[in-house]
Write a structure and sequence with these properties.
Elements lengths: L1 H18 L34 E4 L14 E2 L35 H4 L3 E9 L18 E7 L5 E6 L8 E3 H11 L3 E3 L24 E9 L6 E6 L5 E5 H7 L1 E2 H11 L1 H8 L9 H8 L4 E7 L2 E7 L4 E5 L2 E5 L1
Antiparallel strand pairs: 1-3, 1-6, 2-5, 3-4, 4-5, 7-8, 7-11, 8-9, 9-10, 12-13, 13-14, 14-15
Helix pairs in contact: 5-6, 6-7
Length: 327
């Protein structure tokens, strides 16, 4: 009998202690699965990565300015598929909105050029925010960047049609990342990149010095075609502006250029920078000098590998990876 009472007391005691312990709910960690890829300005189908980014509206070549910008609207639920020529939004009381429409669906050039917008959401024609899907798999939806004008706080929408040449923005995150990577660094170019180039300070033509190093001093929007560009300066104080997309494919970081010079020897490295090839060069050297061939024809005979590299108006012939003839 005493044993039973002891067991009961222990159970009561356990219950009292347990009842004093609170339960705290801990939310699971939210992983950001769609961070902005700062290595690219245009993200193709990954449109949800633009959320939170600042967008700069870049200018247009002077002959295109009269047409303004297409794709901007106030009410994305109306007249989809015809934004560029028939969309006419209702005029709200806020007069600043009126400047977003030219009457034919296009937005006045002077009102948008150089403005900054923040992407606060991605919406569809149904008017709801939807889970991320790869752009283009749902062909029944139109996608829009919901934008806030950072100067006026107006909210507007931009129809994201999936074509890079229609994208009128430069993304702030992309600009900042590229500045960190490029400004202050030295580069070496092929001579062809400076043929006819002029000093932006004096207007005088730049004399080409093969292998010369150029320091990137700024990332900017050049003032004629309004393309994202890099400003370079050499040891003589001369400056030139080169289009960003083209430069990153043809410029050698100085350390890489020095490694190539050491690997190939000064004579062949100078030939490469001049865009020339020479019998005895390797495939790597020829590719650096002339770029990727349009086509490659391969034959293996008696244990030897022969390749014919086809360019638009030239042919290179390799035996076991070494240039033996050209035509």
């Amino acid at each position: 009998m005493k044993k039973t009472r002891l067991t009961f007391l222990l159970l009561v005691s356990s219950t009292i202690v347990f009842g004093q312990i609170s339960t705290t709910t801990i939310a699971p960690k939210i992983e950001n699965k769609i961070p902005y890829d700062s290595s690219q300005n245009y993200l193709k189908g990954d449109i949800y990565k633009y959320i939170g980014q600042d967008l700069y509206v870049k200018g247009k070549f002077d002959k295109l300015r009269e047409y303004g910008y297409s794709g901007f609207c106030l009410d994305y639920t109306k007249d989809m598929g015809k934004l560029s020529n028939t969309y006419k939004p209702q005029r709200p009381k806020n007069e600043s909105y009126e400047k977003y429409d030219l009457g034919g669906g296009n937005t006045d050039y002077n009102f948008l050029v150089g403005r900054y917008f923040k992407v606060i959401d991605i919406v569809t024609t149904e008017g709801t925010t939807i889970p991320f899907i790869e752009y283009g798999k749902d062909y029944n939806k139109n996608y829009f960047l919901k934008l806030v004008n950072k100067e006026t706080n107006d909210t507007i929408y931009y129809h994201y049609d999936g074509y890079e040449h229609n994208f009128p923005f430069i993304v702030g995150g992309f600009i900042e990342e590229q500045k960190k990577k490029l400004v202050g660094k030295e580069f070496v170019f092929h001579n062809s990149e400076f043929e006819g180039a002029t000093d932006i300070q004096t207007g005088k033509e730049i004399t080409i010095i093969t292998g010369q190093k150029w320091k990137c001093i700024d990332l900017t929007i050049e003032g004629k075609y309004y393309e994202l560009s890099l400003v370079f300066e050499n040891s003589l104080g001369q400056r030139t502006v080169e289009e960003f997309d083209r430069v990153i494919n043809v410029a050698y970081p100085a350390t890489k250029a020095d490694n190539y010079k050491k690997k190939f020897g000064l004579e062949k490295w100078i030939l490469i920078l001049k865009g020339k090839v020479q019998i005895g060069m390797t495939k790597e050297m020829c590719k650096l000098s002339w770029g990727e061939p349009d086509d490659i024809n391969t034959t293996i005979t008696l244990g030897k590998k022969w390749e014919q590299w086809v360019y638009s108006d030239n042919y290179l012939y390799f035996e076991n990876g070494v240039l033996t003839a050209m035509q």
